[in-house]
Write a structure and sequence with these properties.
- By secondary structure, the protein is an alpha+beta fold.
- The protein folds into 3 domains: about 5-65 and about 75-155, Orthogonal Bundle (Butyryl-Coa Dehydrogenase, subunit A, domain 1), CATH 1.10.540.10; about 160-285, Butyryl-CoA Dehydrogenase, subunit A, domain 2 (Beta Barrel), CATH 2.40.110; about 430-575.
- The chain has helices at about 5-15, 20-25, 35-50, 55-60, 75-85, 105-120, 120-140, 140-155, 285-320, 330-365, 365-405, 415-420, 430-445, 450-465, 475-495, 500-505, 510-535, 540-560, 560-570, 575-580; strands at about 65, 70, 155-160, 180, 185-195, 205-210, 225-230, 230-235, 240-245, 245-250, 260-265, 275-280.
- The strands form 3 sheets. Strands 3, 4, 5, 6, 7, 10, 11 and 12 form an 8-stranded mixed β-sheet that branches. It has a two-stranded antiparallel sheet with strand order 1-2. A two-stranded antiparallel sheet has the order 8-9.
- Strand 1 and strand 2 (about 70) form a beta hairpin.
- Helix 15 (about 475-495) packs antiparallel against helix 17 (about 510-535).
- The two termini are about 45 Å apart.
Length: about 575
Amino acid sequence: MTYAAPLSDIRFTLDDLGLLQRVAGLPGCEEVSIGLVDAILEEAGKLAGEVIAPLNATGDVQGASVENGVVRTADGFAEAYRAFTDGGWAGIPFDPDYGGQGLPWLVTVAAMEMFAAANTAWTLCPTLTLGAVELLSTHGSKEQKDIFLPRLVSGEWTGTMNLTEPQAGSDLGALRSKAEPDGDHYRITGQKIFITYGEHDMTDNIVHMVLARTPDAPKGPKGISLFIVPKFLVNTDGSLGQRNDVRCVSLEHKLGIHASPTCVMALGENDGAIGYLVGKENEGLHCMFTMMNNARMNIGISGLAIAERAYQQARDYARDRVQFGPIIQHPDVRRMLMTMRAQTEAMRGFAYEAAAYLDIAKRHPDTDARQAAQTRVDLLIPVVKAWCSDSGVEVASLGIQIHGGMGYIEETGAAQHYRDARIAPIYEGTNGIQAVDLVSRKVLRDGGTAANDYIDSLRSEIKTLKDVDLGAAAQLSTHLSAAVDALARATAWLVENGPGNQALALAGASHYLKLFGIVAGGAAMARAASGAANGLKNGGDHSFYQSKLSTAAFYATQMLPQADALATAITDGGEAVLAIEEDLL
């Protein structure tokens, strides 16, 4: 049940796939060298493995508790959080003017992968704070930034996202929380549910980002505003003032992430919770999407992280477990382990690529280059979130299967990985919603331009593979080319048929997202194979690089062939999805 940060694999993804080189020359990243990043990742790995990971199983058993609105986290969580903030990990990608380190998001996601793999439930707290900082950095006023950002960036305070209500889950237009103007602030009343780390004992203050309606606001999503609602009000000198009228009334009992307090929050039971408007009235969803997209990226990283953790444990068990010899020798166990390994490495390459595009979108000196990178980020985010989180569940499930009956027993820890992974496809807009977003907003809205630009870029990459000796992965070029053709075929069908029959297009949306993820993962594996071939050519670690080629070959022959079947399900299967009348289902 131990966790060892996969530093060699992470370094390989950053360096041999060329991702670090993409961002190192951007403004503000000139000093981001391989040596510096190695040192950062080494320390992150130590914190993850030595401090955070030992709390994973104990936190799962103990869980969080609430009494009279006071939430206690599991033993050791607060101490681990102090070690995290003392090391400056909360501010890796943020503006040095507010205490951040100004490092690329690419480096941030690498560190966050290790923390999430060590302890998913614990890492949800700093993950949400990353999103809160991103939101305020983008949409907050100067006064709001000066008050809240230094303490959020340092991790002295944490942030939350208060969206969901009992009657308003994915349909945020149905929310009822109210915000009444009162001088320079608002008085907010309402109830929010499923609020991760809405109350805890790891920091002195919690900064809630709350969606609510002002009087006479339009109905639906266009009438939603966003407010900063701190647990404790903040005095002009930055010190904490009186307790705000917001409290946790209960904790949810969940399938997994037991140590992460999932709170039911009551706002305004007395005089109304004091909140401060972010941006303009009725533009709250636009502002909140900044935090949501940040969270979606990080939830995708958590899928990758838990897959890595489950793979490590299953591999080690398979080496030690003897059934007619060590079970790692059995072909079907080898198939499962290779599936876990290949999916994990493909996820890492793809998700890190998206993070590199995010850095380009934020830092590139050319406006057109920034816009092109942001368009690519917008296209990839729903795939990172959904494909990686779905794959994390699949990999964790395979981990249980490799353990056999012992995997179903809690003491081995394999079941916890599966239980903890299962929330990720639901978080931050279910994966079905991510698929709808991908098809309707990212493909149909621009007539497939962004998707086809991505497909063209993959085809250009495939051409470069023909000049590389891929050894064991020699077939990768052929299989990836066929998979890209399948993605192009499905995209063209959606663009042609979607505008006239959206229901038919959306019936295959989840298949399209999975197809997109498999192909994007295949492209990442192609870059990995090329990097490994170059490493071998330059006299690098033969065993390490050869294993990368073998993993790429497995992905090419075992996973990329799924692309054609998924494309057929999209182009030919929609009518079957919609054929049966609702009352017969």
